[in-house]
Amino acid sequence: MFFSFPLISYSCRIRIMAEALKNVIAQSLECPVCLNTFTDPKILSCSHTYCKTCLDNLLGCHGNDKMLRCPVCRAETQVPNQDVSKLPANLALKSLIEDMKNQFQFCSNCKSEDEPQAVVYCQDCCKFFCSTCHNKHSQWPDFISHEVLVMSEIVSGKVSVRRYRKCRKHPKEDEECFCSDCRRFACFRCVVMEHTKEGHGVIEAAVYESSHMKSIEDLKSKADEKRSCFQKYIDFIDEQKEHVSNVQKQCTDDINKAFEESVRQLTKRKELLIVEVKGKTEGVEKELDEMKKSAQERMTHLTTVADMVTNRTKVPSDMDALAAHDTICQDLQEALKQEDADYKQPRRSSRKGKSVSFNRNVGMNELALGRIVNAVAIKNLALPTKNSMIALVSTPDGRMAVGCWTGGVEIFSANGQLQQTVLKHVKIRGVGFLSDDRYVILDRSNNITLYTLEYTKLNVMFETLSQDEGGFPGLTVDGDDQIYVSYRKPAKIQVFSPAGGKAIREIPCDGFHPNQITSCNDYLVIRSHDAIRLIDKQGVVKYELTELGSFPYAAVSQGNTILIAKLKHDVGLVSIDKYTNELKHIQALVIDYKIEKPEREWHYLQQYRSGEIAFCTADRLYIFHWK
């Protein structure tokens, strides 16, 4: 039996083969993500290619991640600086796409060998038509509703051609089937040869596409719903942000109003304080002016009379001249008999003026600025044991404990009354108190001993440095019940636990010697010969005052400020100033107060809980208060 096949010219066969090849190539030029012809194709490290825009979108889905996962093989590619444009371009594919765009598309319907150029493409017929065929096609009643694309728009990229897939193994065959197990499209011949084994689920490509489009629509619907939820959430955040912004604006307005009101109040308070301090000092200035005027009058009288006597160039000869000269000489002698200037009177008056100070509100009601006060020494007490004071510390119940190197701790009230003397048998070097009110005593042998409230010695041993090793020591206890002992010779501080034993750590004092030591929150206040330093508990100097002159003494006052007493030992004058905990000057409290010059140059400064300031010399206790 013979079969007859229609005769096809060689050129037609060539054209058919070229058309099939073009369809295969066209499928290879589609991006797997957007399914359109590649635009600026970029290659990943796994050799798969995608549009740059598609890769930008994929990278954006992962936030700040610098790794891009291939949608096909899941391999990761590092994106330099999250910039997809720095990935290598697929130059060969890019060139092929340009070549395909520049190729003429011939009519798929013409039987002639002239190969007329196509002007449109019918999406439903899947054919290119020349102008003649397009006119005929548009007149067919069944094809009027077909979607027709103009070639110029296809070439320019404005529209995309929906192509039926052609089998790579059988280019003339459409891939009309889909194997759900192999996840690939296939033509009918491939299905018969490769997808009939058990387990292969083959369905029509149109059915799969319909199902796939439905799943896409479902996903899109869910994505729209989720996006709507996020939009509501974003709108809610914007609403909350607006509320917060309104609160900020309202608070800012309130703060500005409060500030302006505070400025008015502060200005008024400042003016009142200035008037008050003027009233307290003008009387003193007037007294001093009167003393000055009287002294100047006496000096003028003396000068005039002396000049009249001593500036004469002739000796008086007649009786009148001699009488006048004798009278003037007598006046000069009377002037010379007057008492010398009395320094005590202006000193007493100036002391009244110098006792006036401005007590600034630090850590309290700053708006009130403070108050004008007069510093008055209400007590000037001789210590029971002369030349014996070695330590001064506030007691837990608000009194003042004076340690004596000859033995004992003397307890004074804020009004200067000696209330009791304890531990008379212990020769004191330093005194401190733990939070449970136990005494911490450093004796003259540099040993630390703990005593109960009833003055019972506790069996707790501390391994301190001897006097030969450490020299003269100092003692303080901080709020965490850690005991600090400073040593002059090695210039260091040992830290002990109340449990006793060896020092738990040491703090170096680089470049200075710790003569006196006081605890202040997270710092230690160190007094050297001519400086006050605040160091942290690792030994780092945080703040220092080095221009105070000789003999400065420091104490921690109420409100965690620092009191510093400066002593002019040669003339017996003490001044006390208040500083911040950064050693910035706040105010003068006592100015050049006259004290009795002590035998020994050793002093201490402390403050009672009730506010009085105690300044102690080796012989006497001075207690200052304000009114």
Protein model, in words:
- This protein has 627 residues and is an alpha+beta fold.
- It has 3 domains: 95 residues, Herpes Virus-1, CATH 3.30.40.10; 138 residues; 272 residues, 6 Propeller (Neuraminidase).
- The chain contains 10 helices and 34 strands.
- Strand 24 and strand 25 form a beta hairpin.
- Helix 7 packs antiparallel against helix 9.
- The relative contact order is 0.05.
- The N terminus is likely disordered.
Helical stretch count?
A: 10
Radius of gyration: 52 Å
Mean pLDDT: 82
What low-confidence regions span 5 or more consecutive residues with pLDDT below 50? 1-10
The geometry reads as elongated
Question: What's the β-strand tally?
Answer: 34
